[in-house]
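Handout, tutorial session.
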Amino acid sequence: MSQQQQIIRGAEPAAGPSPTEAAASILKRSKLRPTLAVVLGSGFQAVLSRCTIVLEVPYATIPGFPRLSVSGHDGKLLLCHLAKTPLVVLSGRAHYYEGHDMDAVTFATRVVAAMGVKVLVLTNAAGGINSSFKSGDFMAITDHINLMGMNPLRGWLAPDRFVDLSDTYDPDLTKLLKQAAEKAKTRFHKGVYLAVSGPSYETPAEIRAFGKLGADAVGMSTVPEAIVARQCGMRVAGLSCITNLAAGRSKQKLSHAEVLATGEAARPKSAKLLEYFAHLYAGGK
């Protein structure tokens, strides 16, 4: 087993299918070899209407993929072209709060790494902590704070488990996101994403504390995938849709329905933003 294979799977044999086996099961179905992977969080699925789909595979048919239980997450993998860029799209993700362990949460990340993908774009719905943020805005993640209470590399025996996260979110990819947002004519920010385990929303006191820690937005995903992607040697970009103001920032009670509704309203802009990003990425390779 090569060092890269060990990093993708771990030095000890894991129970069940490995990411390498899952990747092989996907690649044998198509000649398309993606260079870019995109994880679609809530509010980002509309970009699929702009893709030329070559292959669509339900997660349930891919060895080792976890089952999803969250509204707004389809649970399918697609090989396609977007703005002439060959990519793999993960429509929906597994969340820690669903009861999955971190190996399951990050399994798809290791699969796309095993497919040979070098760049991963992680999208999500997030609550706005920064007082200048409004619902429907977008934020490129420049750094993160992990308060999920768990690290996805815990217990792994792969050679490089002590991963340097100084530049987790690639500055050049962040620049492309900014340019894409300008082309899409949408409100755009850069900031720090704080991850909690969920599934309950945060209290106003917690949001005040998170703001003092330097967080601009809060959510329940993305950070485990980013850590594993960096371990696997992938470049990472992070993009949040601010679907609600965090607790205490408005008089309105928080609900998943609000997240989905705001994400639905932001779909046209999120689709344009990702399409422009793919176009800029293709031109900048």
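The second record follows below. Compare its token runs with those of the first.
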Amino acid sequence: MSRYRRVRLEGGLFFFTVITYQRRPILTTEIGIKCLRNAWRETNATMPFGVEAVCVLPDHLHTIWSLPVGDTNYPARWRKIKGIFSREFHAHGGVPGEPNASRRRKREVSVWQRRYWEHRIRDEDDLRRHVEYTHFNPVKHGHVTTLTDWPWSSFHDHVKQGWIEPDWGTIEPSDLDNVEAGE
């Protein structure tokens, strides 16, 4: 069995990419958004984390979390979010993907990819690049031409806070090529 190394930094900032099983476009459906919001809230209520940025696309999401001081357990948070989402998605009529043989043997629901991409944010410049990458993703993937048209992003909150201009993102930021996103 493979052992994956995860960065453990108490109270750190982390960028994540989480992808649906077989890249099924379920996250931005009415059921998907409802289930994701509930899973997110329920997890954060018992295992708090700060959300610096988030963007939900049909088949994946990007987010940057800040963990509380003394806490390194983001894997448990993702396990809980994925589990709650999967149960609620099924309960609300969502249909999981067709499981492969390995998933059938392990009796796994085929909603999420097993793994996720994580990156520890190193400094302010790294944080800026990853926030920009997160927010620009709907334009990059051709879902919209302007970020103001994408409803499932913290871009709108950042504009309200005055951290980003409303017309930001009409042109791809030049240093996004330096971002490893696990897509």
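Points raised in discussion: Confidence is low (pLDDT under 50) at residues 1-6.
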